[in-house]
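Contributing: when you submit paired examples, paste them exactly as shown. First protein:
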Amino acid sequence: MSAQNEFPKATQIEIVSLEAMEQPVLRQGVAYWRTLRGTRAFPSRDDIRLRDLSSLLKHVVFVKVLDDANDFLLKVVGDEVARCYRAPLINRRMSEIAVDLPYSVTRWSALYRKVALSGEPLAVCVKVGGEKAELNFTHSATVCLPFGVTDDRVDHLVTFGQHFSRIDA
């Protein structure tokens, strides 16, 4: 196997601007979030209408922020996202999922915490390394968007993600 086809020893995470995300699913998710947000810092989770997201639901995760952003409950997990991880995710706390997916939970908890505490959306591109045994993909692009009833506290997060499997990238 040539060096260009090997997985990196460590997972590589690149934070990118929302505008740099090329995937239509992510761009649609961000546009929807911005529409809901209007002039507020972020929209409320109650503003979401699932019928508005019908074409994006397989790519979505609805996350409830718990314990001052020290834990997170995955309330809804789209089919594509669920297939990408080698453990059940729906209606589980990250602290529970950590038993099955320690590398992934460490990464996602840090990203979720950053968005929950800052109130700022975050877009990342990931090239899987050390945790490849936990996953059914090699690359992903995800946006994590804050939601809250008031402009000073994030109580939910919504992610839109696309996952890819490729040996040559």
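Second protein:
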Amino acid sequence: MNQNLQDKKTFEQNNKSQNYTELSQVKNHYSEFWKYEQDDVDTINKLAENYYNQKKFTLAIALCHKALKKQANFAPVYKTLGNILQAQNKIDAAIRAYSLAIKINPNFSEAIVNLASMFYKKGQIDAAMINYRKAITIKPDLAVAYWNLGKVLEQEGRFDEAFFFQEKALELQPSLVDKTQNNHQDSHFKKWNNLESKIGSSAL
């Protein structure tokens, strides 16, 4: 009984509406967190990614900071942190995280792609395209870089270039898009037949 009262007092400040089942889940999360305290940064980062995929952002961020205390120059953690911040729509903070990952590892192509996507969200189209192309130069088989660059070019009305990059993406990774892609190529040809009108309405 006393333990139950103690548990309630410990967690009620976080969310007074939580029931005891939810409180138990929170306790389990923190138990798992501390279990990994002594592990290497790669293991901690993988757990952070797991929490990120479950949309448990607070726990994921806590693990990222734990990893960085152990090794401040571990680029993958900054990429994970950038992904979390991006999911929270904290675009400028995500840019800083990805930039730090790239500063540590200039050839970190996945972080470069994510940085490019953040520039795109901010409307910095040239910076986005530069970084997508940079990622492709570093890792020529990175399908998502080709696909995203193609989407940006498509929005800019540069449909022939867009088609080339998206075809290359699908060649590298056919599963990149779902079956609706079968209609996507037709849409490109329709746009080519209506370039004037499409170029005039290429904004997102």
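If you have annotations for the second protein, write them as plain sentences, like these:
Residues 1-23, 182-204 have pLDDT under 50 and may be disordered.
The CA atoms of residues 55 and 131 lie 27 Å apart.
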